[in-house]
Give the backbone structure.
Amino acid sequence: MEKEQFDIKKSIDCLCIEIDAQQLNPRELAQRVTEVHESTVAASISALYDACARHLKTDDPNLYQAGLLIAQKLDADDKSLLHKNAFHNLEHLKIVILSSLVISKLAEKQGFNATCLDLLVAAMIHDADHDGATNIVDGKCIPFRLEEKAMAYAMPIFEETKVSQLTVGAIHYMLRWTDLAGRTADMKRNYPAGVSDEVEEKAKMLGDADLLFALGLGPKKAMNEDRKLNSELNRPFSRARFLSFINSIAPNGFFSKGAKFFDPNVKDLVIDLKSIPTKRYTANKAFGLYRPAAP
Ligand SMILES: [Zn+2]
């Protein structure tokens, strides 16, 4: 085993042991997830996928193989905008892969017994082929535009590895939960392939994993993620926009049982955003660089 792969495997194994032991509070676990993420920054998607997949029960070798091929495609795809985007890049994919594993391990502790390899694969592809824009084109919202692009990126590999229609449909549905404007409460009812309660929960887990670093790992991490997104969208920081974003997508915290563990950190973020004088944020207006207040 290569050293890079061995190190990632070791740090993910340690994190899973710590989650299993249930001894960390939300702030402490946030700190540990951040540390593990930082240890994976230089890693390939393939190495991270493999290290995470080992912790998810599965009896679907075709899906595992599909995941590996998609990871290799992402690693090798040097024309992809994932190498250029300030936010929706390979690092973001790694963040969401790791977050999916963490959230599924937390859900498992609460009795969620489903295999979650499909969730991990969905996390890996959820922003594949992202073009750095949003789902609003010429002022009109096109629901699931980026999510359909991501699905199309992975489809040839799902076909080649003969992943079942049922699993492909479940992954497709999960991806839709990452479209914050497109997803709706009755999406499940209207989805043509039908969706089980289990897949619905995993879709919420993916939606939460997509936002975990932006909202759930404490104010410092959240501001850093917001800075990168502002840079990609070429807009300045706005505390009002950030607060209204939180209020519109997570008014009561996260949606999935696993991610709800981190709800206290979302509260910390809201308190922090509301309590800090505006001038703290205007010290450097260039894309809203975050300046922590002097103690
Ligand atoms: Zn994303």
Observations:
- The chain has a mean pLDDT of 86.
- The two ends are 46 Å apart (CA to CA).
